[in-house]
TrEMBL record:
Domain F-box: 68-97
Protein name: F-box domain-containing protein
Species assigned in the record: Zopfia rhizophila CBS 207.26
InterPro entries: F-box-like_dom_sf (IPR036047), F-box_dom (IPR001810)
SUPFAM superfamilies: F-box domain
Top-level taxon in the UniProt lineage: Eukaryota
Length: 411
């Protein structure tokens, strides 16, 4: 069986605050290849995924005893009496020996207490986090869960044959790098797109979480002895009408590190800095060369379209020292590497071709269309009054003031 490897988009660096490592010692000693990789091969991993040491006895022999494990059972039960039901369950799930000491009554108290709120679940993850290696797991803040960095999933023979046929003519699908060519912020390849869309079309038992594509962080570039340039970036995916959209936001801001009196320093403008940096938002458009003429001081960005791929971008300039760049990409359905949208995004240089689907409004579709599937959008239209006004009787309020029908048709 062919091994399909899904890499996290921030695999080239450790500065992502969303897929961050919580074990600093292990993160500094581990090799970068094993820290941000997800594999979908059915080999090398057992079928059952074990998440807690309570469910697997092999973990008890590989870790040293924590100080709390050496306490007498009477003292441990006394400490547990001061904790809330959800905290007692969290303590029981941290260790197999502690769970046996506290007994099954702890879980019964939690079930009687009712459902816990999101912040209680977040506290539980904080307690359990020490038992998870950050080189093997990353913590999803949206769904309050731990996802494996190395994941095994079954692939049907039909999908494998289609994948081989796709690669026979076009070669292995190329990755798209956003940011600096030598040190990219975000690397997007087809395996990740297909894994995300497999979960969308086939269910949660397949593929990977949508938040795998979400990245955020910041970088600091020394511009002079007294000035730095701070780059803040954010990548947020969204599925709209069975298509995967990616919103990326970049913010460049000058930051003074010291104030010097009666001394004249050579200041470099942020435009000159970006020209030397070579910052790319796709394989066809650079910030200075292609986007500087779009800069505006208004509150609303004026989006322009890339000539060679389904990408829209807009720039806002504030006092010539603060630049905010917003970019939208239409990655497609992710079913095959021959998808025209993916081919236009991944081809650069002499292989690029003029993109013909310029009627679609990617930015508006990302902001205004809230239906992830086409069936959901058609169902909402059927329940509306024909003009897009949909009144939900269950909550007794208008959920859609307008359904962008023309926008969806063009998209």
């Amino acid at each position: 069986m062919r091994t399909s490897i899904i890499n996290l988009p921030c695999r080239s660096h450790r500065g992502c605050t969303y897929h961050k490592h919580w074990n600093s010692s292990s993160a500094s000693n581990a090799s970068p290849k094993n820290s941000t990789r997800i594999t979908t091969s059915t080999f090398h991993l057992p079928r059952g995924s074990v998440r807690l040491s309570l469910l697997n006895t092999s973990f008890s022999n590989t870790h040293k005893l924590a100080p709390i494990q050496t306490l007498p059972p009477e003292l441990l039960l006394s400490i547990c009496g001061y904790l809330s039901p959800i905290s007692q369950t969290s303590l029981a799930l941290t260790c197999r020996s502690i769970a046996f000491t506290l007994g099954p009554s702890v879980c019964k108290k939690t079930s009687k207490a009712g459902k816990a709120s999101w912040w209680m679940h977040s506290e539980m993850l904080d307690v359990l986090q020490k038992d998870f290696k950050s080189e093997e797991w990353w913590r999803c803040e949206e769904c309050l869960n731990f996802h494996q960095r190395v994941k095994a999933s079954q692939q049907s023979e039909e999908s494998l044959i289609k994948g081989l046929l796709d690669r026979s003519k076009n070669g292995r699908p190329r990755a798209i790098q956003f940011g600096m060519p030598n040190d990219p912020l975000y690397i997007l390849d087809f395996e990740l797109i297909k894994g995300v869309m497999d979960r969308h079309f086939l269910g949660p038992a397949h593929g990977v979480c949508l938040n795998t594509m979400k990245c955020q962080g910041s970088r600091t570039f020394p511009l002079s002895k007294a000035t730095n340039v701070v780059l803040k970036y954010d990548f947020t995916p969204k599925i709209v009408l069975d298509s995967l959209l990616l919103q990326s936001t970049y913010s460049f801001q000058l930051q003074k590190t010291m104030f010097v009196r009666n001394v004249k320093l050579d200041e470099i403008s942020i435009k000159e800095f970006l020209a030397k940096l070579g910052f790319w938002i796709c394989k066809h458009a650079a910030v200075v060369e292609d986007l500087w003429g779009l800069s505006t001081t208004s509150k609303h960005e004026e989006f322009s379209k890339c000539e060679y791929c389904p990408t829209e971008y807009g720039m806002r300039l504030k006092a010539e020292q603060n630049i905010k760049l917003q970019v939208y990409h239409n990655v497609g359905a992710g079913r095959t590497a021959k998808d025209p949208k993916w081919l236009h995004l991944s081809r650069g240089g002499k292989e690029r071709k003029v993109y013909e689907g310029k009627r679609e409004d990617i930015a508006q579709a990302y902001q205004r269309v809230y239906c992830s599937t086409k069936e959901e959008f058609e169902r909402q239209m059927a329940r509306s009054d024909g003009l897009g006004n949909y009144f939900d009787r269950s909550i007794k309020m208008c959920t859609y003031k307008t359904l962008p029908l023309r926008l969806a048709d063009r998209f």
